[in-house]
Amino acid sequence: MNIDLFQKTLHFKTPARTSRGEYKEHHMVLVSMTDDQGRIGLGECAPLPDLSYDRNSYRMMSDVARLINEAMESKDYADYLRPYPALLFALESAMYDMTKSPILYDTPFARSEEGIPFNGLIWMGSYDEMLAQVKKKLLAGFRCIKLKIGAIEWEQEIELIRFLRSKYRKDNLELRVDANCAFTPEEAPAKLEELARYDVHSIEQPIATGQWKTMAELCKNSPLPIALDEELIGLNYLHEKQAMLDTIRPQYIVIKPTLHGGISGSMEWVNEANKRGIKSWMTSALESNVGLRNVALLAARCYGPHVLFTQGLGTGQLFTDNIAMDLELRGAKMWREDVTDENLK
Which of the following is catalytic: 146, 191, 256, 333? Predict the structure, then answer.
């Protein structure tokens, strides 16, 4: 088996704003795996610079190569790479892609028989910019919208939500919001109360991570469901995941394989959440189409065979220089198209 590494920088069509700052470009390492039969598998290692647990682990390509060599020489490469979720996701993806493992490829989505519903993602901007994004998504057929909030004035954000709900009832438009830790513990309860008036489906990560007792109280008393996202970062071992879920008891967790443990770690999160009656969904984390395809394949495995709950797979349209892959957007669903090996080279 041979493993090759390639660096690539993706450029955003429009700077992507969150409450943590602004993204203009995104760096990735493409992992290409080839066996003695000539089969090729692709994976993507693309940690987020200000968020990923392993963001400082790949400063040079030699660091990536060294970690891969050490992992492949260990008894269990997935267990060895638990502290490096972005690289674990890349290596597992390449391995399963090369072998067309049923872990990812034995689903209706993988066979191009069904699409996966995903939300329309609305990035932070001015009121007018966000409203324009929403209108574009609605025209494209989306009936689930996710709004990034926490970067502009709260009154403008709530006015946008108020306007949307005045036009569309919750039966016709599902509204999700992502605060990216923007609220303080003191202001969060009042803001959650206000959001609940407009039938918001859920809010992701309202307050900063590491405040388990405070977050547990918030989840217990919140008038709308809370979904944890950043809270999962860095909890790479089973006992850590169990402790957090048992302490906070959120209504949802949002799983991003690049951030939350690769394929095996993400499946671990889903299983542990299911045991506790906690629901979940899966989203991409600004990967190229290489990573996005593998997130979609994993979502189809975890929530299939027929994926009904809306996932977060809409980031592939953000870049000017994305990598062409076997993905097609049809309205508000993502489909996998059949391709030949030649297309993947």
Answer: 256
